[in-house]
């Protein structure tokens, strides 16, 4: 079986080997030698290896490994793709085996490349050329602090810069905020770039197309010429004040993204939010009720269940959805770039079940419909004027007999056209939550609530409404619904947290 597969390669490989008379040609000869060795090894497996002869499973594993090599070798033009996890090995090989191998790169630490503080990162350092330039991009100060020792070591060997992800996106644009490397040896250039997130298997593509390489060189030069990346000095940083100054230059005074790419993180620090929001007085009970409604409704459903979560934020509720065993697919949509990076990181290993997307909940409309659509502490980020469009879009995504389950914060009854009355209602609700947080000693949570209140008063990303307003919008969208108040109990003049279950009449 394996022999037949290898023999089938020869027509393609002969074309490849025919190039060996042209310069540069040294590795064409080596490829021919390796191919011959592979053929010899397959012959040995067939004739001498008793384990292979007798074990069907063993045969299949070997067959699949050769098949993958064959598939990756077919129709090579200007791009050759490999599993992303193998990228460090190939980079190390290039740096070790090719003289004067010069690398210019942007590394999104812990977004795609998680190996910098591991032995693999040390090996990349050891084999690096002193002329290399690498810009390390960090999502948070915490990540920067964790990797600072590694940055210091790398800066002693080659040119190292650091930048925040927010500033990187501002300079290059969200679509160009990605890892890539440009590798150059004796005039030969190669681009290494991670493939799109939506592929099932994450790949790294090595690209020889000169136009693609030139485009990425322009991006790299644009980044360096902006003077925003901070140079990491090669000397050891010993004083705390020097480290603090370096950190401040990297992360402070951020230039905002375009408004369409930033929502909640424009007015809330999303790192503390992700760590503390679950301590909100009523959040846990609300999420439990939402799951309870789902389990009751889906108890007799033996078919595969698809869930869409809109405004997934940093994935606090998504984690709970992922624990439900009878759910086959979760699509978690989040528009805010900062929140999305945390969300994506949480489900990197569960990509077959949980698909995370940096999309707009108001317009996201994929092929296929969903059995359930969830929104957890998210609907109040949709402007009131946009909610009709938002609900129309939900209707397009919801299967017949499907449910929309919404858990959110609602204000007391007030006149939405009276700004003072609305502001008073906002203060009544948030002051109640802040007082509870302070009483529990949760000062970070209290500060997050203060930020949310301020954003609501400024109408800057937080657009809470009363239950009466929300229900009017649901009725206009032709939804049937029921609601359950989570808390506070026995208090009616401050608003509260509610769960709405909505469906379309059949």
TrEMBL record:
Keywords (A to Z) from UniProt: Methyltransferase, Transferase
KW Transferase (keyword) present: yes
Pfam families in UniProt: Methyltransf_25
Gene3D superfamilies given in the database record: Vaccinia Virus protein VP39
Keyword Transferase: yes
PROSITE patterns: RRNA_A_DIMETH
Domain Methyltransferase: 307-402
GO molecular function term, any single one: rRNA (adenine-N6,N6-)-dimethyltransferase activity
Coiled-coil region(s): none
PANTHER family named in the record: TRANS-ACONITATE 2-METHYLTRANSFERASE, TRANS-ACONITATE 2-METHYLTRANSFERASE-RELATED
Name of the protein this chain belongs to: Methyltransferase domain-containing protein
Originating species: Microcystis aeruginosa PCC 9432
